[in-house]
Design brief:
Order of helices and strands: HHHH
Number of strands: 0
Largest sheet: none
Distance between the termini: 21 Å
Number of helices: 4
Shape: elongated
Structural class: mainly alpha
CATH architecture: Up-down Bundle
Low-confidence stretches: none
Strand content: under 5%
Number of domains: 1
Length: 123
């Protein structure tokens, strides 16, 4: 078992969740069940999967959940880019969150390489 609270990737993912919720409060109300919901779920999924994986018995299982968190991170990035293209937020706002998410992606990728260097969780 791993202590997810000590992982910088988890800590930064939690910061992104808070920022995404603040940002999406400004989105049009008719997006509540569209992009707002999708972006929030993707952002929340990053920290949830890191934590869930940390509670697993093996490093390979942990890496599998980290891989899911990585996918959610990229989903979050694309949703932020879409939000800007739809003029739901300023470029400065979306870029700041994209940069944070890209940093998380690098950290999670490093964790995956550490815990499953051969990606043995895919077997």
């Amino acid at each position: 078992m791993h202590n997810y609270k000590e992982l910088m990737a988890w800590q930064k993912a939690m910061d992104v969740v808070v920022a995404v919720y603040a940002l999406t409060r400004k989105f049009p109300k008719d997006e509540s069940f569209g992009l707002t919901s999708q972006l929030r779920r993707a952002a929340v999924s990053i920290s949830l999967n890191i934590a869930e994986g940390a509670g697993r018995e093996s490093d390979a299982e942990f890496a599998r959940f980290l891989d899911i968190a990585l996918g959610s991170t990229y989903e979050c990035i694309v949703a932020l880019l879409i939000a800007h293209r739809l003029d739901y937020c300023a470029l400065k706002e979306s870029n700041a969150l994209v940069e944070q998410a890209e940093e998380i992606a690098r950290m999670v990728t490093g964790l995956i390489k550490h815990y499953a260097p051969n990606r043995d969780y895919l077997k």
